[in-house]
Specification:
Blueprint (H helix, E strand, L loop, with lengths): L2 H12 L6 E3 L7 E2 L5 E11 L10 H18 L3 E11 L4 H17 L3 E9 L3 E11 L14 E5 L4 H7 L16 H12 L5 H7 L3 E6 L4 H12 L2 E5 L7 H6 L5 H7 L6 E5 L4 H10 L4 E8 L3 E5 L10 H7 L1
Parallel strand pairs: 4-5, 9-12
Antiparallel strand pairs: 1-2, 3-6, 4-6, 7-10, 7-11, 8-10, 9-11
Bound molecules: adenosine-5'-diphosphate (ADP) and magnesium ion.
C-alpha cells in the first residue's frame, strides 16, 4: 500500500467535517480554532506492539485502543474531545491491517464526533502514537492536585478486568490468575475490557466543578491514586472490600489473586476522583443517570501515600516494587 493511499484511507474514514477544522489532513499542518471561552487540553500516548497490547491483537482493536487511551486522559481532565493526530509506524504497509486499524479508530472517533486532522506515517516496529485535543471551559480542567483532607474517593466501573483479560490471552494463561474452568463468556468480557477500553468522557464532563481531583486508572488503582495523593500533598485510604469487581472478574480470577489484580492491574481506564463530602450525594445522583456505576471506596486523609485496608480493616502490606513490576 502506497503512503498516499494510506493517508487517503485515514482521511476518508476518520477526518469528519467539523466547523472548527479550517484545514485538516493534506497540507503541511492542520489549522483549527479553539472556541471562545475554552482552554485547549492536549495529551499524547503511544502504544507499542507487545508492550502496550499483546502481539496478535486484532488491528481494529489496536486502532480503537490507540485513540481510547488518549480520550481517557482527556476524560480525566474533564475535557470534551475534538481532534486527534496519529503517528503510525508499520513494519509493512499491509492494506488489510491498515483498513481494520482505521475502522476501529473511526468507530470510537465517531462516538465522540472527533476529527482526525493529521499525522505521520513511518516504517518500523508496529507503534501507534496519538495526540488528542479537547476543550474545557476556562479554569474548569480537572487536575490531580486538588484533593483535600476529608474528601471522599470514588471510582467508576470495576477494577482489575483488563489485567484479568490479559491473563486470558493464550499462552500466558498457564501462569496467571485465571481459573482453568472460567466460563468462555467471562473470558470474552474481560478480553473486551483489555482490547476496547471505554473512555469515560461523559463522567469527566459531569465532574467539572464537582471533583476536587481526578485521574484515569491506567497504571493500577493504588499507583494512580498515589499520583493524586502526591500532587495534592495528602494521603488516601481505601477499603479493599469496597473496590468494585465485575461478575466476569469474580467468575474468572483465582480468589487469592483478585486483590492484586484489582489494586495493581492497569489498563482499566476508569476514572478515580475525589470530591468534597458535601457534594458526594448530588454527584452520585448525577452519575447514576449516566448508567455507569460509581462507587465510593475511601477517603482523603492527612499524610502521604495510599493505604489499603483489608477485609478485616487492617492495613495491607503493599510491595511497592512488586506493583511496579506487575504493570
Ligand atoms: P509532510 O511530508 O509535509 O510532513 P506527510 O506526507 O507526512 O507530510 O503527510 C501529508 C498529510 O497527511 C499531512 O496533512 C499529514 O498530517 C497527513 N498524514 C500523514 N500520515 C497520517 C496518518 N497516519 N494519519 C492521518 N494523517 C496523516
Ligand atoms: Mg511538509
Amino acid at each position: 500500500m502506497a503512503e498516499f493511499d494510506l493517508i487517503e484511507l485515514f482521511r476518508s474514514r476518520c477526518a469528519r467535517v467539523r466547523a472548527d477544522v479550517t484545514l485538516g489532513i493534506g497540507d503541511d499542518a492542520a489549522v483549527v480554532a479553539v472556541p471562545a471561552g475554552c482552554e485547549l487540553v492536549v495529551c499524547t500516548d503511544t502504544l507499542v506492539a507487545g508492550v502496550h497490547f499483546p502481539l496478535h491483537t486484532q488491528a481494529a482493536d489496536i486502532g480503537w485502543k490507540a485513540l481510547a487511551v488518549n480520550l481517557s486522559d482527556l476524560a480525566a481532565m474533564g475535557a470534551t474531545p475534538a481532534w486527534a493526530t496519529l503517528a503510525l509506524t508499520l513494519p509493512d504497509a499491509n492494506r488489510a491491517f491498515v483498513e481494520h486499524f482505521a475502522s476501529g479508530f473511526a468507530e470510537l472517533a465517531e462516538q465522540h464526533a472527533l476529527a482526525l486532522i493529521g499525522g505521520d506515517t513511518t516504517r518500523g516496529p508496529l507503534t501507534a502514537s496519538v495526540t488528542a485535543f479537547g476543550f474545557v471551559p476556562i479554569g474548569m480542567a480537572l487536575r490531580r492536585d486538588g484533593a483535600r483532607v476529608g474528601d471522599a474517593v470514588l471510582v467508576t466501573g470495576t477494577m482489575g478486568d483488563a489485567a484479568a483479560g490479559l491473563g486470558c490471552v493464550g499462552e500466558q494463561e498457564r501462569d496467571t490468575a485465571i481459573v482453568p474452568s472460567a466460563p468462555e463468556s467471562a473470558r470474552i468480557a474481560l478480553r473486551a475490557r483489555l482490547d476496547r477500553p471505554q473512555p469515560r468522557i461523559a463522567v469527566g464532563e459531569m465532574l467539572r466543578g464537582r471533583a476536587s481531583a481526578c485521574i484515569d486508572v491506567s497504571d493500577g488503582l493504588v499507583a494512580d491514586l498515589g499520583h493524586i495523593a502526591a500532587a495534592s500533598g495528602v494521603g488516601i485510604e481505601i477499603e479493599l472490600a469496597r473496590v468494585p469487581a465485575s461478575e466476569a472478574f469474580r467468575a474468572a480470577v483465582v480468589a487469592d489473586r483478585q486483590s492484586t489484580l484489582q489494586l495493581a492491574g492497569g489498563d482499566d481506564y476508569e476514572l478515580a476522583f475525589t470530591i468534597a463530602e458535601a457534594d458526594v450525594e448530588a454527584a452520585l445522583a448525577a452519575l447514576r443517570a449516566s448508567g455507569l456505576p460509581t462507587t465510593r471506596i475511601g477517603r482523603v486523609v492527612r499524610g502521604s501515600g495510599v493505604l489499603v485496608l483489608d477485609r478485616d480493616g487492617n492495613p495491607m502490606d503493599l510491595p511497592r516494587r512488586g506493583w511496579e513490576h506487575f504493570t
